[in-house]
Design a protein that fits this description.
By secondary structure, the protein is an alpha/beta fold. It has one domain: 3-Layer(aba) Sandwich (Rossmann fold), CATH 3.40.50.150. 34% of the residues lie in helices and 26% in strands. It has a seven-stranded mixed β-sheet, sandwiched between helices. A hairpin with a 2-residue loop joins strand 6 and strand 7. The chain starts with a helix and ends with a strand. The mean pLDDT is 87.
């Protein structure tokens, strides 16, 4: 049964500008994610790598990458229209399970807050497709929602209850869906604003 809160969240998520503002506020300007991107992907290292942002939404992280070598992918045309008007880079509307991209065409990729919206079979299909478009040895940075520690971060506990993703997993469950094409390099947790994340750095098999 749809509640008043569900209806309100549906309306917010359907309005890219409002949704982007809400996320920016609760995640303290995305400082945690931006630090992780800089540390793990090093997008301004002076090389010529091509970067994929899978599930880019409104393009919140596009300006962390060189515009001429950034592609944001999302199934929401409304979000992508907003991103194209306000963020640098190139954008593509398609499903993560069927990327309209050439094989081995990217050197690094970002997935932030996507997998916890997907059941295991679809998440595994996405990882298989991602392995196809990444070159061997590419770095993939995954940041996914996790429950806040018990008794800690009360605001985050409330936000966790409001999250629309129905597949928030523990760390072992997230790692289980990465599949055989990726090797886990390191995993840790972080807090961005009031949101708790598990961070995974994985490498596409050479």
């Amino acid at each position: 049964m749809t509640t008043l809160l569900d209806t309100l969240l549906d309306r917010l998520s359907a309005a890219p500008r409002l949704w982007n503002l809400l996320r920016w506020l609760v995640e303290a300007g995305y400082q945690g994610e931006q630090l992780a991107i800089a540390r793990e992907l090093r997008p301004w290292a002076g090389d010529q790598r091509y970067f994929l942002d899978l599930g880019c939404g409104t393009g919140a992280f596009a300006d962390q990458f060189p515009a001429e070598r950034y592609v944001g992918v999302d199934p929401s045309v409304g979000y992508l229209r907003f991103a194209a008007r306000h963020r640098p880079g190139r954008y593509l509307a398609c499903s993560g399970q069927a990327l309209a991209l050439a094989s081995q065409s990217f050197d690094a990729a970002l997935i932030c807050g996507v997998l916890h919206h997907l059941p295991d079979p679809i998440a595994r299909e996405l990882m298989i497709e991602l392995a196809r478009v990444l070159r061997p040895g590419s770095t993939l940075l995954i940041m996914e929602d996790i429950p806040p520690p018990a008794g800690d971060n009360l605001a985050g506990q409330l936000m966790h209850q409001l999250d629309r993703g129905g597949h928030i997993r523990d760390q072992a469950a997230y790692q289980a869906i990465f599949g055989p094409d990726f090797d886990l390099v390191r995993a840790y947790t972080m807090r961005s604003g009031i949101c708790d994340y598990a961070v995974y750095v994985v490498i596409r098999h050479p």
